[in-house]
Each structure stands twice: as structure tokens, then as C-alpha cells.
Amino acid sequence: MFEKLCKLIADQFGVEPDAVSADTAFVDDLGADSVDLVDLSMALEEEFGMEEMEAEEIESIVTVGDLYKYMQDHLDL
């Protein structure tokens, strides 16, 4: 599941999948802005069947690890 998430993030941000780890920061390492993060949340909804993320939830997620923890809390993993 984590590998699938990393691949999705790599595709979204145009980086190699092995460049994405739990410590990868969306803003600092991937140059993400708020639009990128909303696009990512929509891709997560489509790929993993997650419910729509609230703006506050998106803002609280700094790293890929934070996102994976969020997914674990909101999906039956």
C-alpha cells in the first residue's frame, strides 16, 4: 500500500518513485502548493476510495508519512 501511494505521488509530481519516502515533505521536497495538494487528494479519492479531505486536514499533512498515517486512520488498512 505504501509503495502504491509513493508511485501515485511520484506520478503526480513528476519525480521517480524511489525519490519518494516517508520523510519526503510535500512543500519543501516536492515544491507542492495548495492546488497540487488538492489535486493529490482527488487522486487519492479515485485510487483508494477515500472520502474527500477537508482543507484543514490537507494543511496538517506535511510529509508522505503523515499522509500514509492519515490514510491508515481513514481506510480499513
SSE layout and pairings?
Elements: H1 2-13, H2 34-48, H3 55-60, H4 64-74
Q: What portion of the residues fall into strands of 2 or more residues?
A: under 5%
Largest sheet: none
Number of helices: 4
The level-1 CATH class: Mainly Alpha
Instruction: Work out the radius of gyration.
Output: 11 Å
Poorly predicted tracts of residues: none
Q: Tell me, what's the shape?
A: globular
Structural class: mainly alpha
Number of domains: 1
The CATH topology annotation reads as Non-ribosomal Peptide Synthetase Peptidyl Carrier Protein, Chain A
Order of helices and strands: HHHH
How would you describe what is shown here?
- The protein has 77 residues and is an all-alpha fold.
- It has a single domain (2-74), classed as Non-ribosomal Peptide Synthetase Peptidyl Carrier Protein, Chain A (Orthogonal Bundle), CATH 1.10.1200.
- The protein has four helices and no strands.
- The chain has helices spanning 2-13, 34-48, 55-60, 64-74.
- The longest helix is centred in the middle third of the chain and has 15 residues, at 34-48.
- The relative contact order is 0.19.
Summarize the model shown.
The protein is mainly α. It has helices at 2-13, 34-48, 55-60, 64-74.
Give keywords.
77 residues, mainly alpha, Non-ribosomal Peptide Synthetase Peptidyl Carrier Protein, Chain A, 4 helices, 57% helix
